[in-house]
Amino acid sequence: MFKPNPHLDAVTREANRRRGAAWREKHRERERVRAREAQRIKRLDPVYREQNKKYQKENYWKNPEIKKAEQRRRNRMLRISVLTHYGGKCGCCGEMRMEFLALDHINGDGRSQRQKHGAGIGFYNYVKKHWPTDLRILCHNCNQAIGLYGYCPHKMIVNIETGVPIILNPTGG
Ligand SMILES: [Zn+2]
Ligand SMILES: [Zn+2]
Hints:
By secondary structure, the protein is mainly alpha-helical. Helix content is 60%, strand content 9%.
């Protein structure tokens, strides 16, 4: 941290401040890497981890609303980055608004996967670590229709001569 020296005159102080800022700008990326690495090593220390856990817990109860908002924001960023990785839109209808989107298991074994890796945001954490290839995005509408009826009406056309509906692709995608 930059600490102003009270014995320097204002002009020198300003010049120093600028030099410091220029240096930091130049070395920002290197500093960032170094800080990240230092943090990683620190987190391996069980004593630090225990202290940090305690501190986080106490800190949470000092300001639960702010902490909750931070958590929501982090979860949202995580969801956006995961959804973006898988194409960012519903594989059936192309819906792109993230509030409507969810990850779907192409093999349809969502239940066992969730039991293994947790539901909700825990699952997104797991996905971001491993990037499984058997996932796709569906919006809640298409997902629900495929789950309940075995096909999505988006993928259904009606034969105009016979009136018989034809399902183009039962499982969306
Ligand atoms: Zn859809
Ligand atoms: Zn659909």
